[in-house]
Amino acid sequence: MIAALRTTLATVLVVLGCWFAPTATTTATATAASTPAECDPLDLDNPTAVREHADAVTDVFAGKVSDVEPRTSVGGGEGKANQGDEPSDGSSDGPTGAPDTPDRRITRWQHTVVVDIPFRSELQPGNRVLVVTEPSGEPGGLGRLDVKATYVFFVSGEQGMNHLIAETCGGTTKVGALSAEQRDRLAEALDEQTTEETAPDYSLSPPDDGARSNPSLGRLAAPGAALALIGVLGLLLLARINSRRA
């Protein structure tokens, strides 16, 4: 009797194990698929990488985050989140700091940034601009940036928009205090050579008729000889007319 019970119990355990194993595998696969793709941080000392990221956006500048405001979805629209919901220590989420706020209603973070050094931008030092990021759990979400921190922003905007957008793989990088050496390297890497003249795309070749570059003496004398002949013929014609009159 005991042996039969043990056999039955072992069979039940095997069946349960086979039942839950695929479910766990499927759950793990789904979780991995829903995880946003990661990208390596931009190396600001690599001029080639800096230029590639800059060519993919509309503005590149260094600036300091002066304020951050979470925006939440409210009744199908969007509104300002309660200040008590956001972290009070100035931390950020995603690749820049602490985990995102527990409020899952947040649809984006709106940062007020003071422009320090424009590298490729029509913005001027001292200008204030809104830089928007999505929560770090969203695809392309950079998360909340640190208040009072300096970043090199690689952002994009469109005509009519009142803000610029920064994404996690766009190149926006926290730099702390931007040194003069870093500033000069970035300025050199992002310098747009708009006044550089390109060589004309043509080459000289010999004439198709085989003419030499220097005309021959006969060619130079031909027009004068023709004029002289015309003059002689004219004189002969006048002399004949005068002889007939005489």
Output mean pLDDT: 74
State the secondary-structure class. Answer: alpha+beta
Helical content stands at 25-40%
The count of β-strands is 7
Strand percentage lies at 15-25%
- Spatial shape: rod-shaped
User: Which stretches are low in confidence, meaning pLDDT under 50 for 5 or more residues running?
Assistant: 20-36, 83-101, 194-198
Major sheet details: 7 strands, mixed
Oligomer: single chain
Amino- and carboxy-terminal Cα gap:
165 Å
Helix segment tally: 4
What is the H/E string?
HHEEEEEEEHH
What is the alpha-carbon Rg in Å? 40 Å
Describe the 3D structure.
Helix 2 crosses helix 3 (180-189). With 246 residues, the chain is of the alpha+beta class. A hairpin with a 2-residue loop joins strand 1 and strand 2. It has four helices and seven strands; from the N terminus they run H-H-E-E-E-E-E-E-E-H-H. The relative contact order is 0.14. The longest helix is centred in the first third of the chain and has 33 residues, at 2-34. Mean pLDDT is 74; it is low at 20-36, 83-101 and 194-198. Strands 1, 2, 3, 4, 5, 6 and 7 form a seven-stranded mixed beta sheet that branches.
